[in-house]
Amino acid sequence: MTSCKSNQDTRSAIIKKISLLLVTAALIISGPGTAQEPDYTKHPRYAEFAAQYQAYDRAAASRDFRAALDPARKSLELAREIFGDDAAMTGVMYDRLAYAESATGSFDLAIEHYQKAAAIYAARYGAASEYLGTAYLNMGEAYRSKGDVSRALEFHSAAMDIYRKKLGDKHVYVATACNYIGGALKSRGDYRGAISHYEKALAIYRESLGEDHEFVATTYVNLGGSHEPLGEYDRAVEYYLKAVPIYKKTIGEDHPFLAVAYNNLGLGYHYLGDESSSITYYNLALSIYLKTLGADHPHTAYACINLGQAYRALKSYDDSEKYYMRALGILTGGGDRDGRITALTHLGELYVEREQPKKASESFGAAAALVLKYRLEIGRGKSGFSDRHIGVFNRIIDLELARGDTEKAFIADCMKKGLSITEDMTLKDALGKGEVPAEKQARLLTIMNEIETAESDRAVQAESGNPAEAGKLMKAIWKLEAEKEKTDAALMASYPAYAALRSPAAPALADILAALAPDQALVSYSLNEKKCTAFVLTQDRGLRAVDLGGDIYGEIANDSRNIHVLYKYPSGGTILARIRSADGSPVFWNRKLEGKKYSVRDGSVYSLDSAGLVTGDFPRAGDAGFREILVGAIEGDIDANGIEQERERLSRKLFDGLLKPVMNEAPSARKFVIVPDGPVYYVPIGILKDESGGMFSQSRQYCLVHSPAIWLDLAGRKSARAAHPLLALGNAVYGAGHENVGAAVRGRMRSAGSMAFHGEAAAAEGSFQAEASDDPGFGNLPGTAEEVALIGNIAYGGESPAGHVLTGIDANEDMVFEMNDRKILGKYRIIHFAAHGLFIDSNPSLNAIVLSLPAAAKKHRKVEYGAYTTRHGGMRRDGYLRLGEIKTLGLKCDLVVMSACETSLGHYIRGEGMVGLPQAFMIAGSRSVMASLWPVDDEAACLLMEEFYGNILKKGMPPGRALQEAQRSVSEEFPDPFYWAPFVVYGE
Question: Cα–Cα distances in Å, from 570 out to 178, 347, 401, 975?
Answer without folding.
Answer: 48, 53, 43, 10
